[in-house]
Amino acid sequence: MWAWAMVAGAQQVTVTSTTPLLRDIEPAFYPTLSPSGDRLLYSDVDARGLKMLDLGTHAVTTISEQTGAGFDAKWSNDGQVYYITSKVDEKSRLVFRTGMRYDLKRQASDVVLEAQHGAVHLETGTQGMAMNGESHTFATAPKRGVSVYTTGSQLVVNVDGKESRYSPVESYAGYLWSSVSPAGDKIAFYAAGRGIVVTTLQGKVLAELGNYEMPCWYNNDYLVAQNASDDGYQYTSSQILLLKADGTSRHELTPKTSMTMQPTAGGGKIVYTTIDGNLTMITLDINE
């Protein structure tokens, strides 16, 4: 599809393989690769339900059919899947969210955080997982290595059980899509109206990469992101970029006209979808 070499300075990035996924089965959105790159979570356009594709066998497993399950599902470092479901209470009309864990060996889900009103934030750490709700929380262990989540315009960073809060840049509309680099030494997040920011674990800004969305670590030196534009009603363009974490290079992995979006990375692979839900997996060769 888009197998070319992109050059920026002395760097050359080549798309070495392109593999369509699930094209004859169903549209897929919100893809999330496992850290090893052997499995992929996905959902439908409205995040109703959560499914898993085994990239080796191509088998599809339905993890949940509940509302919201596919919107922000995450892998833990032990290979289990954590996700949040939502339900509107018929009497109060309030939304209640429940934290769930899917065990791959048992092929079953368990409630780990009882239903509560208000936001629930998933927090992926280098050595564990947590769910932070407004009334109660869940964690796999008190010390989770390095982990991060956002609330409003704050980064909430947990280092070996000690929590700190930072606001590295101004963003009145808040922060989204925070994650820790594979080596656990940097944080990337999106500041609304400003773009992707990379910081130290202490909230010191290392680089601002541009006004792109949905940053995801490809390795400890690069991130993939979405570069989209709209006219206030619908998308007019969208592409996938490879960005160096220090802000020194930017490579187009897909053209703006491709309407590609929602990138995810793991195990040296990148997966993205299109506005129509067509999943594609690519691999890269980076020469520096």
Top keywords for this entry?
disordered N terminus; 288 residues; Methylamine Dehydrogenase, Chain H; mainly beta
Explain what the structure shows.
The protein is built from no helices and 27 strands. The chain is mainly β. The chain has a single domain (5-287), classed as YVTN repeat-like/Quinoprotein amine dehydrogenase (Methylamine Dehydrogenase, Chain H), CATH 2.130.10.10. The model is unreliable at 1-9 (pLDDT under 50).
Concise synopsis of the structure shown:
This protein is mainly β. It has no helices and 27 strands.
Which blocks of ≥5 consecutive residues have pLDDT under 50? 1-9
Strand content: over 45%
Kindly report the average pLDDT value.
Answer: 93
Largest beta-sheet details? 6 strands, antiparallel
Quaternary structure = single chain
Taken in chain order, the helices and strands follow as EEEEEEEEEEEEEEEEEEEEEEEEEEE
User: How far apart, in Å, are the first and last alpha carbons?
Assistant: 24 Å
